[in-house]
Amino acid sequence: MAVSSKLSQTYHLPASQPRQHSQMPGGWCRQQLPQALGECHFETLCLDQDLTLVRSRYRPNRPLVEEAHSCHEGRLLVITLALQGRSGFCASDGSTLAFDAGQTTVTTFPASQGERRYEAASTVSQLRLLVGERLLEKYLGAQRARQLLGHGPLRQLARQTTSAASSGHANALLCPASQDHSGHLERHIHALSLLSLQLQALAPAPTAENCRLSADDIDKLQQVRDLMFEQMHQPLTVAYLCATVGLNEFKLKQGLRAHFNTTPQRMLLELRMARAHSLLQSGCQVAQVAYRVGYGYPGNFSAAFTRFYGKSPKSVFGPRR
């Protein structure tokens, strides 16, 4: 009875309490919480200055409140993909957030303390992308970056069902990567693509006068991207995409150019190549990958892949399936 009562009590873990540190394959650094709390750890990977990945898996054997403290200077944009379970966060000013499986949450944080909260015997798995001010200024410009980050306490900018495109980039980031420089490059590409998907909605580029996009138009353009990701194995056409989401061809093409700075053909190619690279790394054969990303002939796929990445599909093979 005494043991059961103890495990039902909330455990408060201060930030000052030592964690067990270890290096993981691919450059990840793991921090393990005390084993007495259950299976609880998180891993960080610095991709670039002001761009950090964090993947975490917690299954505490008692209710857990973990004190967290940001070591970054200035404000952070944090994209959280909740992969499994439910958890919460309470900032030092009393602001709260909830993270639920299947949801993507975008927040801005000041450099302050807070608490992460977990239920007992419930598995929580998350992938977070931490983006600093300087990187946002690089891609958005100083004014748009300041507007996005805002001032004051924690701010929740967005919370929605995780899109198929975001899931694809997250899966690629969670897969074991090759140990050479190309593996680091691919992770960087997927991380920036994940960031780009959110910035396109939160801080879209100024729209050209001859292509004014309503909120409904932008939502349909996001649907186009998701449709390409979900059905890339099909021979997709512009006419089919237009009919499916309810946009005319002019609005689709001009909208993609204004909102995503791309064309339908280029967007589909980039999605196919990113998916192909991930499948090859996981051990799929070239012919399998070709059919799964929409190429009827493996030779055509190999030629397209080599043009896109500057290397052949066979050079990317991971462990065989």
Task: Please render the helix and strand layout as text.
Blueprint: H1 2-8, E1 11-13, E2 20-23, E3 29-32, E4 38-48, E5 51-60, E6 64-69, E7 76-84, E8 86-91, E9 96-100, E10 103-109, E11 113-118, E12 124-132, H2 133-140, H3 142-149, E13 155-161, H4 164-174, H5 181-202, H6 215-230, H7 238-245, H8 249-260, H9 264-281, H10 286-292, H11 298-309
Parallel strand pairs: 1-6
Antiparallel strand pairs: 2-3, 3-4, 4-5, 5-12, 6-11, 7-10, 7-12, 8-9, 8-11, 10-13
Helix pairs in contact: 2-3, 4-5, 4-9, 6-7, 10-11
Question: Keywords for this structure?
Answer:
321 residues; alpha+beta; Jelly Rolls; Arc Repressor Mutant, subunit A; 2 domains; eight-stranded antiparallel β-sheet; five-stranded mixed β-sheet; 11 helices; 40% helix; 27% strand
Summarize the structure in short.
This protein is an alpha+beta fold and 321 residues long.
Question: In words, what does this structure look like?
Answer:
The protein is of the alpha+beta class. It folds into 2 domains: 2-163, Jelly Rolls, CATH 2.60.120; 181-316, Orthogonal Bundle (Arc Repressor Mutant, subunit A). Helix content is 40%, strand content 27%. The chain contains 11 helices and 13 strands. The chain has helices at 2-8, 133-140, 142-149, 164-174, 181-202, 215-230, 238-245, 249-260, 264-281, 286-292, 298-309, and strands spanning 11-13, 20-23, 29-32, 38-48, 51-60, 64-69, 76-84, 86-91, 96-100, 103-109, 113-118, 124-132, 155-161. The strands form 2 sheets. The protein has an 8-stranded antiparallel beta sheet. Strands 1-6-11-8-9 form a 5-stranded mixed beta sheet, with no helix packed on it. β4 (38-48) and β5 form a beta hairpin. The radius of gyration is 21 Å and the shape is globular. The protein starts with a helix and ends in a 12-residue tail after the last helix. The mean pLDDT is 85.
